[in-house]
Amino acid sequence: MKKIYNAPLFLEIPAEEFYALITEGYGL
Amino acid sequence: MLILADTVSLKQDEENFMLFDNISGNIYKLNELSYEILSLCDGKNTDEDILLNITESFDATITEAEKDFEGLVRILLDKKYIYDNDNEKGGELYEKDL
What we know:
The complex is a heterodimer.
Chain A: E1 10-13, H1 15-25
Chain B: E1 2-4, E2 8-13, E3 16-21, E4 27-30, H1 32-40, H2 47-57, H3 62-78, E5 82-84, H4 92-97
Antiparallel strand pairs in B: 1-5, 2-3, 3-4
Helix pairs in contact in B: 2-3
């Protein structure tokens, strides 16, 4: 089955947001 | 054919897709589609190959996929995150521009 199509995302994020994403992902 | 510059890295972690600019330290959030497009920029796939891959994997018309693909490619070329290896070489040009 084909995946749902969403327009390509290319969004600059601040480093703080990146670290938040990572720490949440690893339960930290 | 498009090729990813050697100054950037692509990372996937579960449902997070990221592009890192190893020179500036900038971080970009991608989605699965933009990650897939960038992954296919290996200097071997033509634009048509990439578009075909997208329309096979995602529920999109060729017109829709082509419009979005061209928009993304334009941004990435402007930022020198990808190169057209028919006439430019990633890395070398980047250093000359600094």
